[in-house]
Amino acid sequence: MHTQFEFTVFPQLETDRFILRKGKMDDRQDILRLYSNENVVKYLPLPLFASVEDAIDEINWYEKIFKEQKGLRWVIEEIQTNKVIGTCGYLNYEKEHNRIEIGYDLNPDYWGKGVMQEALNAIIHFAFTSMGINKIEAKIEPENTASIKLVEKLNFSQEGLLRQHEFEKGKYVDLAIFSLLKSEF
């Protein structure tokens, strides 16, 4: 199946309040601030960032997954302040199945303000219209109720529970799996 999007130029998206764009080295302090917050990394398979080098590695990883056509990670820049306040994107792109996994994180100062719903609506639209995606999956720890509420607002349906699916931070964690099909969008 031919898709319009070919992983040549990183797509920039815009919403009413945010620019979703490629991460750059100038974002390293904002990325460090984001991932050095315990509340942000609580449910992520990431250690707490301790240095600017950690942020640089993260930005380089965004570049790597794009180059390898495995995923896309946008930084969420607030138009009003030009600050990067979070990230969102896709990983585990399975082109032959037109399936991809969504992920996102946000500075706690912006929680509960509809930021992620606005950003995810833009990238979901992009996946279904420009990438030819049929199914978007979200894997969420069951204790992460805010994230579950978010995907439910976006019309994702829970498919099941992957028991002790990943080993993170010294323990096995369950992941609830949610999905949204193009036909439901």
Automatic annotation (TrEMBL):
SUPFAM superfamilies for the chain: Acyl-CoA N-acyltransferases (Nat)
Residue span, N-acetyltransferase domain: 18-174
PANTHER family: GNAT FAMILY, PUTATIVE (AFU_ORTHOLOGUE AFUA_3G00765)-RELATED-RELATED, RIBOSOMAL-PROTEIN-ALANINE ACETYLTRANSFERASE
PROSITE patterns tied to this protein: GNAT (PS51186)
The protein's name in its UniProt record: Alanine acetyltransferase
Residue stretches spanning the membrane: none
The organism's place on the tree of life at top rank: Bacteria
UniProt-listed InterPro entries: Acyl_CoA_acyltransferase, GNAT_dom, N-acetyltransferase
Pfam family name, one: Acetyltransf_3
